[in-house]
Amino acid sequence: MDPFVSLDATAQAELVRRREVSPLELVDAAITRIERCNPKLNAVVQTQFDTARLRAKNPLPQGPFTGVPFLLKDLHAAQEGYPLTSGSRFTRDFSPNHDSELVKRHLRAGLIVLGKTNTPELGLLPTTEGELHGPCRNPWDLTRSPGGSSGGAAAAVASGMVPFAHASDGGGSIRGPASHCGLFGLKPSRGRNPTGPELADPFHWLIGEHALTRSVRDSATLLDATEGPDVGAPSIAPPKTRPYQLEAGAPPGRLRIGLTLRNAMGAPIHPECLAAVTATARKLEGLGHAVSEGHLQTAGDEDLGQHFMTAWACGVVSSIEGLARRTGRPPSSEHFEPFTWALYQFGQGQGLSAYLHAQAEILRFSRAFARHFEDVDVWLLPTTTEPALALGQFPAPPDDPLAPLFRAATLVPYCPMANMAGNPAMSVPLHWTPEGLPVGVQFISRFGDEATLFRLAAQLEAAHPWTHRRPAVFG
Fold first, then answer.
1. Does residue 299 fall inside a structural domain?
2. Is 173 a catalytic residue?
3. Which residues have C-beta within 8 Å of that of residue 295, sequence separation ≥ 6?
4. In 21, 24, 66, 244, which residue has its Cα 20 to 30 A from 413's Cα atom?
5. Per the residue annotation, which of 73, 187, 240, 283 is the catalytic one?
6. Structure-model confidence comparison of residues 302 and 110, the more confident one
7. H helices of 162-293, where?
8. Active site residue 57
9. What's the CATH number where 59 sits?
């Protein structure tokens, strides 16, 4: 039996600190789990096993996670000399000539990178079944998607390959996979984690990077190790009061929690997603919090959905043209999936005035969104409108290649507003369907207030633990 598979990253690091195990033992065990599970899941699309073993044998930085195995998402996480395909044929041979600042901080924390995880092309869809790497499967049900765009990371963590993994979120790409795979997933505040040394987010600062974890404390401690502005940061989150590691376990106090089930898309909510939220409201009341139903402005209100898509589509144009400059290759339809190319063409047709108007409306929304927290500390709402979907639910037919847009919008209508406003948001695994599928619930707090989310999540984790649950594919 693998003695490490059920341990979170904090517990594994403690074994290394006590010299009860070596980093190489942890790495070898994780490699064995990847080799055993990945053929079923297709979560890991690039491996660095020899490099990882060499790093494990040599002196490592003394950080909070010294010697712990880790995976990077094949998107955003630049690593010098290693492929960063972004899930696209266009960049299948592209390797950055530098480490991103966030990756540098991962390495300084003592983590050992074993490879890269599967993601849809350019991270554009809430499912992970791109043409370059093929579909990733959900460890809880191999016929279903783990979500996207951090689906490979979610499948790898949920199946026990590694205790946690890098992830990113531009409209629900951490929170959706967390919900579908029974994990804790926090999207930090805008500017909390670094994006340098290059301007890594062409999507008008919609994207936040962090991780998918099995425990709350792993997420908190990792954010302690990575948060803070890098040189020249254009956006900076408010400084934390004390380490997040201390927040994860501190009493949250009696919180005023707003509950909303309405979404401006008019998307119906699956009964199990509805049950997850209502049951969580009762749990919160049982813990002494005040829960009241109210209206939270969501991404479809007052044409915000259109402004979001304008910013998103123009971001696709910027991404593709930026990759073209880096690779020295002109983009063409033969290099991209039909949906990606159609979104690229849509973005090209928006024009500068439409893009600037979308930016202005998103900023206006951000100010309006802040007012929702004048009388409420945290909002409770669904993470997604459905449990994990069967694979193949996002077709892009030739006569309507943008069709996946509407499907995506109806699956995660509750997620993009936290990206537009920059607020921290998390999905917490508190519900399972009768078929055994996990369903997460989402919480959003004030801008810069990850501390309240960590305190609340840790309280829920202690009262209603989830790490004992194991998917069909585990270890």
1. yes
2. yes
3. 260, 262
4. 244
5. 73
6. 110
7. 175-181, 216-226, 244-247, 271-286
8. no
9. 3.90.1300.10
